[in-house]
Amino acid sequence: FNAICEQPAMVMFSSSPKKETLSEKDSLLNIIETEEFVVNIVSYSLRNEMNISAGNYPRGVSEIEKAGLKIADSKTVSVPRIESAPAALECRLWDTIELPTQNDSSRTTVIFGTVTGIHINEQFLKDGKIDVSLYQPMARLGYMDYACIKETFSMKRQSWNSSHTPKVPIKGLVKVNTLFSHIYKLADTVIYFLKINDHMVN
Question: What angle do CA 197, 72, 202 make, to 5 degrees?
């Protein structure tokens, strides 16, 4: 997935058809039906569960049960979140866009969602900010390769009108626009669990 806007807080991801049947994946069908979804950030400790959840299971099979994961109630949507995820974004469907048809007549759909709530595991906070080195988010590379983020560095951008952004304590479910800027910095590299009803894909 990718964070695409801070105000309003929004995310996007794409869903391609199943290679074997060219049919739409459960995640897309469930989002269209319920107009809700939750993006759960994957830590290094959840890498095996993430991989299990990515299996090509028949519709009606719970990837959560297959991966041995526990769920927790969300606050702003009816879809539950993954209890052990370091962070989770509750989302409501904003729109979908179908991309051009492929040679096999299938097509990929891009899903846009508005973030309505954010959960953060407080053990991964340091000085009021998310410290990714504490939970080591996973990143999807090419082929079957992944990376694990253990170190980060900062570079201040030059600006004619620089301003100081105060640190805001983050606990549990917080105001979306306050916290989303922290999540926004991770989205280009972090892979995710996408939990829709009883189905989860990566």
Answer: 50
